[in-house]
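WARN no homologs supplied; continuing
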Amino acid sequence: MVFAPARGSEVQAVLELCEQWQVKVALWGMAQVEPALLAEAELLWLDPAPFMAEHRRLAPDQNWWFVLPGCPVGTLSDLGLAQFAQLPPDLTVAAWLADREACEWSPGRLAQSGIRQASLLLNDGEILTLGPFGTSSTQALEGMRLQQLIPQLFRMASAERLTAAFEAPRWPGRFRLDAMRPQPPADVSLAHLLAGHGGGLGWVQWLVVGPGQASPRWDSSVAELEDPHRVRLSDHVVRDLFDPAERFWMPGDDPPLPAAFEPDN
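OK structure emitted
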């Protein structure tokens, strides 16, 4: 089933119902999703495109844009944001942000995305405002959940077992822990954690985005890490911090099947 919410309050109501009925929520429009899933999987797809396409400049003298998740990337490309120029113009900004291949900047280079801030609605209804976190940031860290997340993310990103991942040409995991260790002169931006997240951390309510660079298109000649298990383990930990019940489905998860198809125990 596909549902097109008209406002954020409808998304919150849907999440409450899905929690009650144990139905997973998925972002509509992701390129990696097989069409067969639409017929077979017991998922509620949320499509932001019909009603959540607003965009506006934050200030007349700045090139920062506030965009809702259904905004087409073609609109942003027309505004001169180069990171969207080679993408399908009708792709929503939410689907772009969820797409790993479209958001695969090299480790520590996520500032090239142009992403500055994001609002993330979690499955339990809490809202996190993710953005710059450093000496040049004026954003307050509001909420106990966010204040607890930050030290855990920094500890994970500083683990010696991830050294090879930070030195690789491409990030080998799903969730971008390298957001916590940007290449100078960039500061940490918690919003960069969402690059390529597959919809598996929460529902993106809005983004603030400015000029950026298109993500590199990697080919098979760029090898994966010899031992990617450690990064995969970190992916599980990151997801558990944001969506411990895994109510948000993402590509790579086993699709939940309707009860009629479940084998008898």
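The longest strand covers residues 115-121.
OK
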